[in-house]
Amino acid sequence: MPEAIQKDTLIGKRITKLDAPEKAGGKTRYIQDLDVQGQLYGKILRSSRVHAKIKSIDTSAAKALSGVHAVITAADVPYQRPIGVAKDHFPLKTDRVRSLRDEIAAVAAESEAIAEAALKLIRVEYEDLPVLADPNESLKPGAPLIHPEPHGATAKHDHLKQAQGIAYAGKPDNIAMVFDYAQGDVAAGERESDVVFEDTFHLHYVTHCCMGVSGIIAEFDSSGNLLMYSNTQVPFLHKREFAEILAMDPARIRIIQPPIGGGFGSKLDIYPFEPITVFLARATGRPVKLIFTREEEFLASPTRQPVILTLRSGCKKDGTLTFRTVSTLHDNGAYTSWGATTPFVMMQTISSLYRVPHCLYHTKAVYTNNPYAGSFRGYGNLQATFAVEQHMDMMAEAIGMDPLAFRLKNAQDPGEVTPQGMHFKSCGLKECLTTAAEASGFLAKAGANRANRDKPGRFKHGIGIASMLHVGGGAKIYPSDGCGTILKMDDFGSVTLITGASEIGQGSETVLAQLVCEELGLPLSAVRVINNDTEITPWDVGVHASRTTFIAGNSAIGAAKKARGKILAAAGKMADLNPDELDLRGGHIVEAKSGKVVMTLAKLLRQLHFSDKAELVMTSFYYEPPSKHQDKHFKGDVSAAYAWATQVVEVEVDTDTGIVRLLKVTGAHDVGRVLNRLGIEGQIEGGIVMGQGYALTEELLVENGVVRNPGFRDYKLVTAPEIPEMDVRFIETMDGEGPQGAKGVGEAPAICIAAATANAIENATGVRIMALPFTPEKVYRALKAKGQHH
Amino acid sequence: MSQQTIDFTLNGVPTRVSVPVQMSALEMIRNVAGLTGTKYGCGEGECGACTILLDGVSLNSCLLFAVECDGRAVTTIEGLAADPVGLRIEKAFVDAGAVQCGFCTPGMVMQAKQLLEQNPHPSREEIQRGIEGNLCRCTGYVKIVDAIEAASKE
């Protein structure tokens, strides 16, 4: 036993991930790697038509195939209820298909090969309907309806559903959702403006491309309890939703989350394959495992929502912003998932990234026969920032102000409450702007590039700046933003941390363990984290909205503080010392001032358990601090803290080919406080490259409802040789409510890259491109068009 | 379906299996031999998650027929536990923060092993080129390159 231990901290250190050794050694079992004794293999027959009536389905030959245990269609599950945000989506389609991914039938068989063979034996007769592939077409009077009032067989189902309290009533038009927000008087703002711009920006389809494809295993026990091995990011809310879809008691549903091969928002909703697998398990009485192929992953996973965004903004000659008017058209796809609700985030950037007195915001999310849009890291913010930050550059240029000074003039300060009601208790935007600009030499390079752009030479360099605002302290999209922790201490000086928060690779279990260690003076090796079983872990609203470190972190700290109090009180009593003068360090109880060791924690715990009433199981819940929830006009404070960032992007444009290379990204991120330096660097570097893919290489090509590139051969993720040099700076604003001062960071780094790249291309070439991605063809054509204007 | 019996060494262990002739080495490794460290990412040789070593040379096991392993030496991520270079790479991945969701990691480690066998002291650019056939969606590759560089310097 050491004589004395001095105070040390884990905060801000480079902490390796708890789950990394298993993963690096190939020992981690993802959903694909799990098998349950007696399991069957599920496969789904998807539509071969984009929009059609289902005239008939003949499954007889498939049912007769040896090794096939069940073939099901909507007719076999009359109890199925619609899924999704708007409850407009039956897992198995009833009378019509609305997109090429649509599920018509499903098979459970003894092998994947048999299941696939059975799918080929199912005969479907279709009657084609007109295809709506453009949201503008969907809005035209007389456009065919994608969700008409149900009749016939569906109406019968509908009757059942209404009896059960869930209506699937169809839609009188193709509008899935509408969002309106207003502050001030934009007409008055426009009258005060010296400069006004109006432009339309086009944002494209991209998809998550999690390296681990989607999958699920479902099984029922003899009492009818359902166990799902699932990759969901929201296990507790999904229990309730699954219960509704499956018409069963939510308390009978248990969800175990094996390690997840990438999330990025893709696993925030329930998708048809999940209830379908449960239907198969029900039909066969056997566990059923269903794993996507990569092609299926491209065809049948959600996308980031394509948006047509028209932005009108103005400012005065002195650089003061006056107003913004925004109208967006979201391509919802055939069904409504979270993608339709992204305007909720977009309007925050429009109204509150910079000070704007007058704002008017309108969105229509419109049904088409395209793939449907879900939630994806950034949640609409990449699209909004792309438009806003290009207009910031354009206005700065028009009034002859440098783009940095223009942004600084309009940037938010700590303490600000915006007209939308967001309260920025900590805000490092100005520091982000100056730090990123100085570190990159932004102003000097921008000037030099501009001076160089009309000179001869094939390769042009450009530099661009953009900033972002995103929730960083949870998001009050549900009535509560809670997360629970159970912390138990047995008798070996170790801790089991049982948390409601899910690990999706982002490193939450490591950072939570670290926060607990900080309170209890333990090495990281003394903590085990349990975070993946709804029967064990306490309630939580899921891993989304960059909330986990903030919400689950505060929850874990709460439990650890309780344990600390109990331990120190007991130690004080045992050693006849004042608990206030004791501390926990390195697995020991020490005197706080001198560091002198009093006893080992292990010994104390053992004694406590053998004495009576030790009760070393702490529980704690963290709910966001009280604040004004958003009202129906979207006014209110949506997060306990807000994250800020500025990114400066440097590019090289090959004017002969249109190829844009990302040379360097300099980022300054207000993260509140760095908890795990290794983890936060990884989040930011990964986010930057995801943003790079969005800006330059990735596009899900959808033509008339058909995905043309469902594979990595033609859907281009960024590869290792293409990444830019990165210089990432952390702005530590020490948020008062954050765990150890930290704020959320998961989504932030992906958000401004496309906007900053657009500004950099303009700096290099004088050409502003308002549509993504910046493929060589698009850039080449834009350069050529400019040349022709000369 | 026509079956064929093949003999090969799997991570140094003499192995005999009977496989359908059209089965990929990836399926054989995962579903017949039961080693799940080698991952299915795309099935068309584009992502590198299924990288193995065949007679010491890295390749995408999804593009290799199982029967082509006959008479040869197959090394998977599990086999690196007995390989000092492999262990060094794995540890470097952990220490450098090169692992997030971890799904691409076994393939990356296998590719790194091949790279360091061929070029024990690669530059960062050579490392980036060396792993260009391996996709990662989480890390942005920076820390993977850091890890391989660190492993090369030990």
Tell me the layout of helices and strands.
The complex is a heterodimer of chains A (790) and B (154).
Chain A: H1 20-24, E1 40-46, E2 52-58, H2 60-64, E3 68-73, E4 96-97, E5 103-109, H3 112-120, E6 123-128, H4 135-139, H5 152-163, E7 175-183, H6 186-191, E8 195-203, E9 206-207, E10 215-220, E11 226-230, H7 235-246, E12 253-256, H8 273-284, E13 288-291, H9 294-300, E14 303-304, E15 307-315, E16 321-333, H10 343-352, E17 358-367, H11 381-399, H12 403-410, H13 429-440, H14 442-452, E18 459-471, E19 483-489, E20 495-499, H15 508-520, E21 527-530, H16 548-575, E22 582-585, E23 588-591, E24 597-600, H17 601-610, E25 617-622, E26 642-654, E27 660-670, H18 677-697, E28 702-703, E29 706-707, E30 725-731, H19 748-751, H20 753-765, H21 776-789
Parallel strand pairs in A: 1-13, 11-12, 16-17, 20-21, 27-30
Antiparallel strand pairs in A: 1-5, 2-4, 2-6, 3-5, 7-17, 8-15, 9-14, 10-11, 10-13, 15-16, 18-26, 19-20, 19-25, 22-23, 23-24, 26-27, 28-29
Chain B: E1 3-10, E2 13-20, H1 25-32, E3 51-54, E4 57-60, E5 73-75, H2 84-96, H3 105-118, H4 124-130, H5 142-153
Parallel strand pairs in B: 1-5
Antiparallel strand pairs in B: 1-2, 3-4, 3-5
Helix pairs in contact in B: 2-3, 2-5
What does this entry look like structurally?
The complex is a heterodimer of chains A (790) and B (154). With 790 residues, chain A is α+β, with helices and mostly antiparallel strands. Chain A folds into 3 domains: 149 residues, Aldehyde Oxidoreductase, domain 4, CATH 3.30.365; 187 residues, Alpha-Beta Complex (Aldehyde Oxidoreductase, domain 3); 324 residues, Aldehyde Oxidoreductase, domain 4. In chain A, strands 3-5-1-13-10-11-12 form a 7-stranded mixed β-sheet, sandwiched between helices. Chain A has a 5-stranded mixed β-sheet with strand order 7-17-16-15-8. In chain A, strands 18-26-27-30 form a 4-stranded mixed β-sheet, sandwiched between helices. In chain A, a hairpin with a 5-residue loop joins strand 15 and strand 16. In chain A, helix 10 packs parallel to helix 11 and helix 18 crosses helix 20. Chain A is globular. Chain A starts with 19 loop residues before the first helix and ends with a helix. In chain B, a hairpin with a 2-residue loop joins strand 1 and strand 2. Chain B is globular and about 45 Å long. Chain B has 2 domains: 77 residues, Beta-grasp domain (Ubiquitin-like (UB roll)), CATH 3.10.20.30; 71 residues, [2Fe-2S]-binding domain (DNA polymerase, domain 1, Orthogonal Bundle). Chain B has 5 helices and 5 strands, in the order E-E-H-E-E-E-H-H-H-H. Chain B has 154 residues and is α+β, with helices and mostly antiparallel strands. Helix content of chain B is 35%, strand content 18%. Chain B has a 5-stranded mixed β-sheet with strand order 2-1-5-3-4, sandwiched between helices.
